[in-house]
Write a structure and sequence with these properties.
This protein is mostly helical. It has one domain. Helix content is 64%, strand content 4%. The chain has 5 helices and 2 strands; from the N terminus they run E-E-H-H-H-H-H. A two-stranded antiparallel ribbon has the order 1-2. The relative contact order is 0.11.
Length: 94
């Protein structure tokens, strides 16, 4: 999928299904203190925020109280967390 000049790759994975099929996935999630459902929820939120950040330049003015505006504020105020996530190879930061 292309957004402006950038290509966006989204890998669709359902951790709930993976954890049910592979005990090692369930064990890794448990070791991280997460359930599969929590991981699915968190990954979806990260994708929404990340995609909003990527389209910010293309979207034009965004109302601060809108969902897009709130996503942008979250992304901007958690920049170091996104950079740390990028260092894991699980997320690429622009």
């Amino acid at each position: 999928m292309a957004i402006g000049q950038q290509r966006v790759s989204v890998v669709a994975v359902t951790m709930t299904a993976l954890a049910a099929q592979y005990p090692s996935v369930a064990a890794d999630l448990q070791a991280a203190g997460l359930t599969a459902a929590e991981e699915d929820r968190d990954r979806a939120a990260i994708l929404r925020v990340g995609l909003t950040h990527m389209v910010d330049a293309v979207a034009g003015p965004v109302a601060p109280a809108s969902v897009l505006g709130q996503n942008l504020v979250f992304r901007q105020t958690h920049d170091q967390a996104f950079k740390a996530l990028g260092a894991t190879g699980m997320w690429r930061t622009p």
